[in-house]
């Protein structure tokens, strides 16, 4: 009787939010490949079938995790603020939200953003570019920005710094002698340099976007 009461009390504390948070923690702790609803349920102190009471399938849960990460983004900057500053903030906010969950981001980057919450985010993002650019150009610029922000985030979370190495890497001596530019550049590939490198590229891209917006304004 006491055990049944304890189980009932525990089940009452289970929720979609608690499951999502535990799933995010588990994925970052053990990696996406090792993630399963069985492990998730065990982490929560439940049987695996308990998860399916809230999410019909693992796919539904993964959709919810993407929505959860999108929900962690700061609100869109107020429309009264300068347009380019709002674009700048959007890129920074997206990168920050995605790179703080590196193991999940590999999944996010290759998953279609077609849940209502994801579509609402995409819709507002495209609309931001449409404020200063004609529709086709706005979409292409948005896509270009996505390439940069998503690509940079992928590189930071699963790319050069975390990727596998060749079986027989060249020696440090050979590197210094035959590939001096690569040897000298090595320090700039380290995680401590990610922010500065991203900001440099982001500002270059923003300069180009601002020039396009001015050109369109002059032609109107």
From TrEMBL:
GO terms for molecular function: DNA-binding transcription factor activity; transcription cis-regulatory region binding. It holds the Pfam family TetR_N. GO terms for biological process: negative regulation of DNA-templated transcription; response to antibiotic. Transmembrane segments: none annotated. Residues 36-55 bind DNA. Residues 13-73 form the HTH tetR-type domain. PROSITE patterns: HTH_TETR_2. InterPro entries: Homeodomain-like_sf (IPR009057), HTH-type_TetR-like_transc_reg (IPR050109), HTH_TetR (IPR001647), Repressor_TetR_C (IPR004111), Tet_transcr_reg_TetR (IPR003012), Tet_transcr_reg_TetR-rel_C_sf (IPR036271). Keywords: DNA-binding, Repressor, Transcription, Transcription regulation. TetR is the repressor of the tetracycline resistance element; its N-terminal region forms a helix-turn-helix structure and binds DNA. Binding of tetracycline to TetR reduces the repressor affinity for the tetracycline resistance gene (tetA) promoter operator sites. This is TetR/AcrR family transcriptional regulator. It comes from Devosia nanyangense. The lineage of its organism: Bacteria, Pseudomonadati, Pseudomonadota, Alphaproteobacteria, Hyphomicrobiales.
